[in-house]
Amino acid sequence: MTVVVDASITVAWYLGEEEAATAHVVLQRLGQTQALAPSLWWFEVRNALLANERRGRIDTTQTAEILAHLVKLPIQLVREPNGDAILALARTHGLTIYDAAYLELALRADAPLATLDRQLARAARVAQVPLLGERDLR
Fold first, then answer.
1. What backbone phi and psi angles, to 5 degrees, belong to 77?
2. Which residues contact 22 (CB under 8 A, 6 or more apart)?
3. Which of the residues 19, 50, 91, 112 has an alpha carbon 20 to 30 A from that of 121?
């Protein structure tokens, strides 16, 4: 099975507090499955880590450790987005282009989506994309 992971779930693997249970269920599944993410995931994760450095929640050493762990995980970046579909999904569901990119990839890959973003989770439900950890997103 393949799963699409977004930056919110990824960052929660390391920094999540109330979302930790859901995030860790997804992380454990990566041992049995492959994960996909649109290429923007690479930037979003690093931006979130930098923002947490600036807030004093983590330091540069912790960021480096997190990034070193991430590269060992079976997460494949997909660099060929379907721009028309992403734009249509963003319009239909009131999403940002960034969030619509995750939804489009889940639809195209026929894969469940792992996210902690409530608006993206609602859009996924409407689009009939299964959610990992859905009970925790309501």
1. -85, 130
2. 9, 12, 116, 132, 133, 136, 137
3. 50
Q: Closest Cα to residue 50, out of 60, 40, 41, 42?
A: 60
Which residues span the domain enclosing 78?
Answer: 2-136
pLDDT tens profile 59-82: 999 999 999 999 999 999 999 999
- What percent of the chain has a predicted confidence (pLDDT) above 70? 94
Phi-psi region of 133 (alpha: psi -120 to 50; beta: other; left: phi over 0): left
pLDDT at 47 over 90: yes
Q: How far is it, in rounded angstroms, from Cα 13 to Cα 18? A: 11
* Helices and strands counted in the chain (H then E): 7, 4
* The pLDDT of residue 133: 64
Domain count along the chain: 1
**Which amino acid belongs to residue 102?**
Y
